[in-house]
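Consider the subject:
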Amino acid sequence: MNRKDFLKQLWKRLFRPVIILTVVYYSVTFLISVFNENGTERLLTTIILSLTILFTLAHLIGALLGRIRERIYNKLSDHVTFKLRIMGKISDYLAVLILGAVLYKFWTKHTILASIFIILLLIDRMNNIIKEEKSKVTQ
Protein backbone atom coordinates (compact mmCIF):
# COMPACT_ATOMS: atom_id res chain seq x y z
CA MET A 1 0.00 0.00 0.00
CA ASN A 2 1.48 3.31 -1.04
CA ARG A 3 0.98 6.65 0.66
CA LYS A 4 -1.88 7.76 -1.61
CA ASP A 5 -3.93 4.61 -0.95
CA PHE A 6 -3.19 4.84 2.77
CA LEU A 7 -4.47 8.44 2.90
CA LYS A 8 -7.61 7.50 0.96
CA GLN A 9 -8.35 4.66 3.36
CA LEU A 10 -7.61 6.89 6.34
CA TRP A 11 -10.00 9.52 4.97
CA LYS A 12 -12.77 6.99 4.24
CA ARG A 13 -12.51 5.06 7.49
CA LEU A 14 -11.50 7.67 10.03
CA PHE A 15 -11.67 11.33 9.14
CA ARG A 16 -14.86 11.44 7.09
CA PRO A 17 -16.98 9.52 9.66
CA VAL A 18 -15.60 11.66 12.49
CA ILE A 19 -16.38 14.87 10.61
CA ILE A 20 -19.88 13.68 9.70
CA LEU A 21 -20.63 12.60 13.27
CA THR A 22 -19.34 15.91 14.60
CA VAL A 23 -21.51 17.90 12.20
CA VAL A 24 -24.55 15.77 13.03
CA TYR A 25 -23.93 16.17 16.78
CA TYR A 26 -23.65 19.96 16.61
CA SER A 27 -26.63 20.18 14.25
CA VAL A 28 -28.80 18.18 16.63
CA THR A 29 -27.72 20.25 19.63
CA PHE A 30 -28.44 23.43 17.67
CA LEU A 31 -31.91 22.17 16.72
CA ILE A 32 -32.64 21.18 20.30
CA SER A 33 -31.60 24.61 21.57
CA VAL A 34 -33.63 26.36 18.87
CA PHE A 35 -36.79 24.41 19.62
CA ASN A 36 -36.43 24.98 23.36
CA GLU A 37 -36.59 28.74 22.86
CA ASN A 38 -39.29 30.81 21.20
CA GLY A 39 -38.39 33.35 18.58
CA THR A 40 -37.71 33.95 14.93
CA GLU A 41 -34.95 31.33 14.87
CA ARG A 42 -37.52 28.68 15.73
CA LEU A 43 -39.85 29.78 12.96
CA LEU A 44 -37.09 30.01 10.35
CA THR A 45 -35.61 26.67 11.33
CA THR A 46 -39.02 25.01 11.17
CA ILE A 47 -39.66 26.47 7.72
CA ILE A 48 -36.23 25.49 6.40
CA LEU A 49 -36.48 21.96 7.82
CA SER A 50 -39.98 21.54 6.42
CA LEU A 51 -38.92 22.70 2.96
CA THR A 52 -35.82 20.49 3.04
CA ILE A 53 -37.86 17.44 3.98
CA LEU A 54 -40.49 18.29 1.36
CA PHE A 55 -37.93 18.71 -1.44
CA THR A 56 -36.06 15.56 -0.42
CA LEU A 57 -39.27 13.53 -0.43
CA ALA A 58 -40.27 15.00 -3.78
CA HIS A 59 -36.87 14.08 -5.24
CA LEU A 60 -37.02 10.53 -3.88
CA ILE A 61 -40.59 10.00 -5.03
CA GLY A 62 -39.70 11.40 -8.47
CA ALA A 63 -36.75 9.02 -8.77
CA LEU A 64 -38.90 6.07 -7.68
CA LEU A 65 -41.71 6.95 -10.09
CA GLY A 66 -39.17 7.45 -12.88
CA ARG A 67 -37.84 3.92 -12.40
CA ILE A 68 -41.35 2.47 -12.29
CA ARG A 69 -42.29 4.42 -15.43
CA GLU A 70 -39.24 3.14 -17.29
CA ARG A 71 -40.09 -0.46 -16.40
CA ILE A 72 -43.67 -0.02 -17.57
CA TYR A 73 -42.66 1.77 -20.80
CA ASN A 74 -40.21 -1.01 -21.68
CA LYS A 75 -43.04 -3.54 -21.56
CA LEU A 76 -45.45 -1.54 -23.76
CA SER A 77 -45.66 -1.68 -27.54
CA ASP A 78 -44.59 1.20 -29.80
CA HIS A 79 -48.20 2.07 -30.68
CA VAL A 80 -49.18 2.44 -27.03
CA THR A 81 -46.07 4.51 -26.17
CA PHE A 82 -46.86 6.81 -29.13
CA LYS A 83 -50.38 7.38 -27.78
CA LEU A 84 -49.01 7.97 -24.29
CA ARG A 85 -46.59 10.58 -25.64
CA ILE A 86 -49.46 12.40 -27.36
CA MET A 87 -51.56 12.29 -24.18
CA GLY A 88 -48.54 13.60 -22.23
CA LYS A 89 -48.20 16.59 -24.58
CA ILE A 90 -51.92 17.35 -24.30
CA SER A 91 -51.73 17.14 -20.51
CA ASP A 92 -48.75 19.55 -20.53
CA TYR A 93 -50.90 22.16 -22.28
CA LEU A 94 -53.83 21.53 -19.92
CA ALA A 95 -51.52 21.78 -16.90
CA VAL A 96 -50.49 25.29 -17.98
CA LEU A 97 -54.13 26.34 -18.26
CA ILE A 98 -54.99 24.87 -14.87
CA LEU A 99 -51.92 26.50 -13.34
CA GLY A 100 -53.04 29.84 -14.75
CA ALA A 101 -56.49 29.41 -13.21
CA VAL A 102 -54.97 28.48 -9.84
CA LEU A 103 -52.63 31.49 -9.95
CA TYR A 104 -55.54 33.79 -10.79
CA LYS A 105 -57.51 32.43 -7.82
CA PHE A 106 -54.47 32.87 -5.55
CA TRP A 107 -53.93 36.38 -6.86
CA THR A 108 -57.47 37.43 -6.04
CA LYS A 109 -57.34 35.93 -2.53
CA HIS A 110 -53.69 35.85 -1.39
CA THR A 111 -51.39 38.07 -3.43
CA ILE A 112 -48.26 37.39 -1.36
CA LEU A 113 -48.69 33.62 -1.63
CA ALA A 114 -49.28 33.94 -5.37
CA SER A 115 -46.17 36.10 -5.76
CA ILE A 116 -44.03 33.55 -3.94
CA PHE A 117 -45.52 30.75 -6.03
CA ILE A 118 -44.82 32.62 -9.28
CA ILE A 119 -41.23 33.32 -8.22
CA LEU A 120 -40.70 29.63 -7.43
CA LEU A 121 -42.12 28.64 -10.80
CA LEU A 122 -39.86 31.11 -12.60
CA ILE A 123 -36.81 29.82 -10.75
CA ASP A 124 -37.76 26.25 -11.66
CA ARG A 125 -38.21 27.22 -15.30
CA MET A 126 -34.84 29.00 -15.35
CA ASN A 127 -33.18 25.91 -13.88
CA ASN A 128 -34.77 23.75 -16.59
CA ILE A 129 -33.55 26.11 -19.31
CA ILE A 130 -30.03 26.10 -17.88
CA LYS A 131 -30.01 22.28 -17.76
CA GLU A 132 -31.23 22.08 -21.37
CA GLU A 133 -28.56 24.51 -22.53
CA LYS A 134 -25.83 22.63 -20.68
CA SER A 135 -26.97 19.35 -22.20
CA LYS A 136 -26.91 20.93 -25.68
CA VAL A 137 -23.37 22.22 -25.12
CA THR A 138 -22.09 18.84 -23.92
CA GLN A 139 -23.59 17.02 -26.91
